[in-house]
Amino acid sequence: MTTALTVLALLCIFLLPFGVVWLTRRSKIVGAVGAIACCYLIGFAFSTIGLSGTSYDKGLTTTVAYILVALSIPLILFSIDLRALKQLTRGTAVGYSLCIVSAVVVAVAMFFITRSFFPSADLSAMIVGLYTGGTPNLNAIGAAMGSAMGRDVEQTRNILNAANVSDTLVGGIYFLLLISIAPKVYAFFLDKKRGKKKEPLPAPAFEEGKEDAAACELSAKTDDYAFGFSVKDKKSVLRLVGAFLLSVGCLGVGALLEFLIEGTVGENLLYILLSVSTLGVAFSFIRPIREIKGQYSLGMYLILMFSLALSMSIDWTVFLSDILPTLAFFACAQASVILLHLLLCKIFRVDGATAIVTSTAGVYGPPFIAPVAKAANRPDLIAPGVICGALGLAVGTLLGYGVGMLLLLV
After folding, report:
1. Residues 201-248: tens digit of each pLDDT
2. For 185, how many CA atoms within 13 A lie in the half-sphere containing its CB?
3. How deeply is 277 buried, as exposed, middle or buried, from its count of CB atoms within 10 A (0-12, 13-18, 19+)?
4. pTM for the full model?
5. CA atoms of 234 and 196, how far apart (whole Å)
6. Domain ranges of the chain
7. Where are the alpha helices (DSSP H) in 149-233?
């Protein structure tokens, strides 16, 4: 019976996200909730009706979840064209740089504030990765930091579940503000006249309709919440399969490094994290690989599968004891990052629209840029915002892990 339920659980992990994506495109309510949140809700539902615990191999589904998130990172990074960074104007570059500074400063401060009563080096590391590039960074860093801190698989899994749920709740509130009243708040705070002299706003990164080709292509890849597959012919399918196999190879390089250095496989995820992140960026400079259609969407689909697998294997007793302090940690961290970024944008004279788009790039990553830029009435900022988010995906994982490891030395 256990074997049959394990097979059923694995089938659910691989197939249910297809239904979730389909529903997000056809239901405004489901679309508003979001695909990742829906996968977590489904996983939680399964875990409460008995399809967890002794019913199936929880350790196997956790291992599958870690493999999925490791495979997703290079697939997402393959499609990024970092050459487009040269198209960013000073205002956009400064605005996003301030996002990175804000995330690091707040994460370090939160660690020192809470370390006497709440072990938070891994959460601080996740904060850095999350608020420089989005959810993929959070999950990769959380898995790697769990190994570095000596946590067992179950502890790491429950912390990741609590972190993801907290991010979904807190991040969902901020996103609703971003597409409603936040653009006016940013404009009021940042676009007021300074003194008697009128200072012109920074020039937009691109004129509408005349964006750089690389930036437009990257924006198209990450539009529509990044879950739409655009492969329509046999050649495209074969290329996408090739991209997936290449991501498997990146994972294999990390496993081989761990085996050669540590003599083990899967116990220290640092080697896998370094390999998939570094090789993902390196292969993105090879044009035939970068231009493979659908690989970004496939990477994001693996994130959905990861979310479902992780939440299906939840230990509710541990999760309920972790969720409140973790939720408070993330709520304080996100509010602090946003406010510090806003203050720094005021000091460095970044205009309101650029500030809100670069904040979105840091907190959510590329898929959420378009609706926020449109809400701010600045569609010309979509492409540069996506570029900033892509940069965060490329550097945020390693930056967050590096900060986390430094905090462990304190």
Report:
1. 444 444 444 444 545 555 555 443 445 555 566 788 889 999 999 999
2. 12
3. buried
4. 0.80
5. 63
6. 2-191+206-409
7. 153-178, 182-190, 213-221
